[in-house]
Amino acid sequence: MHSPLDRWFAEEILVHEEALLRYLLRSWPHREEAQDLRQDIYARVYEAAAKGFPAQPKAFLFAAARNLMADRARRARVVSIEPMGDFEPSHVLVDDVSPERWCGGRQLLHRLADAFDGLPDRCREAVWLRRVEELSQKDVAMRMGISEKTVEKHLAKGMRLLADRLYGGDGMARDAHSVPAKDDDERQHAD
Amino acid sequence: MNASTRTEIEHTAADWLARRDGSAWSQADHAALADWLDADTAHRVAFLRLQAAWDESGRLQALGAGWKQPGPPPRGHWAQPAQAQGAASIALAPDLRDLKLAPRPPVGRSLAATAFAVLSIAACALFAGWGWRTYTHVDTASYQAALGQVQAAPLADGSRAVLSSDSRIDVQLSRHRRLVELRRGEAIFEVAKDATRPFVVDTGNRQVIAVGTRFSVRRDGNDLRVVVTEGTVRLETTRTGQGPQPMALLPAGSIALARGGDVLVRSLPIADAEGMLDWRDGTLAFRDTTLAEAVVEFNRFNARKLVVADPAAGALRVGGSFRWDNAEGFARLLERGFPLRAEYDASRIVLHSR
């Protein structure tokens, strides 16, 4: 499950998610598409890295972002030329968190604490019982007086929200979830 | 990709991860997940992203250290600045200002990953969950105290460490073992009882092993001092060559001094052994101790060093309890009570016989 490629992706690419999103939000006229672009960029980067690791992952990531936006702009033919000028990511590369600092610092703990505190109550409780008290999903279900299936759902939701906050940063997480949150509720009703 | 496709993929990826984390995970599920991941790179990157975040969330254990009640602490529990709370609360909440998490060691990571891969091939259905948990639950943290500081470090398993001046420990907590590497200096450990996970303090060539007890370990290069004030600990030397592995069992009240291949064990009344750990409360206790030894103790805590100028001065015997942050006060007391003369300058205090 943890191939060198997978590890590389987590350690060299995901850590730049916040900077990437900021760049996308600045450069792309449709804010709501930032997360979709992000996902496509990840897929491109991952596929390219499968053929050989780029020497400078971060620069490579931003180049992929620029290319994707350019492709889309060409295809759509509706995007004005002004945002194109901003696609140049060089200024984003300055003064950003290096992966070492991101992974190593107490910054991560603060970030994790914030992300965790941002979870909805029951979801937060389930994540705590599973991850800190190390109860099995079954025992979490007993403790919370809910079904195992529901515990699984809380955890799945927790994983998504934690990822958005940990990688995407605070502002983006809120931004990104104004849409998916609705989608989430619909799902819960449908289940 | 449009938004609904993207969120759908993320939801599906999260569902897979949560299911795999549960008890009903089967070989068929494993194969189905592999198929889903292979079907589209978008699936794989979404999955990897959530998995990496879930891995990181294991560090919540470090945040949870010191929180003894069932369930999560209230929101904002980690938000208050530790500065304002004073020293007393350090024991209650981890002090994030001085807490540093080392990146997970790449060796452990690749070993675990390799082990995981092998297991997956051999008997993935049965062991996947086990390998996964073993891998995810290694928690790594480093703590250090600067010169002149004593620093409490609540560990994620409920144990407590108190670091003496100029000391550093690296902690790894896994499901099978609690490993503390004492890099330098001294620390007192109050070990939470957990018979399934021995608590090991490693000093390079020696290991001090406990289950639930209170003891301190001090390291000067490869010289080692262990003081036990409660329970029993085992002192082991890393086997080198063919000979039998030297081992010593140290009951409460023991002081073990290890140097080179030798281990010297002394037994003291427990109160005296406790006295050797008084630095935790800001004092150093001496009883019929030579001035030369006392000076070494003071110098552990202070940048302004005490220096004994001649052997006659070093051989004087002192007793009593002194604040370690007041070396100058100690010197002035010595001048009054002993045939000694002290020279004070900014970087050191030199003690001469009179």
Automatic annotation (TrEMBL), chain A:
The keyword Glycoprotein does not apply. InterPro entries: RNA_pol_sigma-70-like (IPR039425), RNA_pol_sigma-70_dom (IPR014284), RNA_pol_sigma70_r2 (IPR007627), RNA_pol_sigma70_r4_t2 (IPR013249), RNA_pol_sigma_r2 (IPR013325), RNA_pol_sigma_r3/r4-like (IPR013324), WH-like_DNA-bd_sf (IPR036388). The keyword Oxidoreductase does not apply. SUPFAM superfamilies: Sigma2 domain of RNA polymerase sigma factors, Sigma3 and sigma4 domains of RNA polymerase sigma factors. Residues 111-162 form the RNA polymerase sigma factor 70 region 4 type domain. GO terms for molecular function: DNA binding; sigma factor activity. GO terms for biological process: DNA-templated transcription initiation. Keywords: Sigma factor, Transcription, Transcription regulation. Pfam families: Sigma70_r2, Sigma70_r4_2. Belongs to the sigma-70 factor family. ECF subfamily. This is Sigma-70 family RNA polymerase sigma factor.
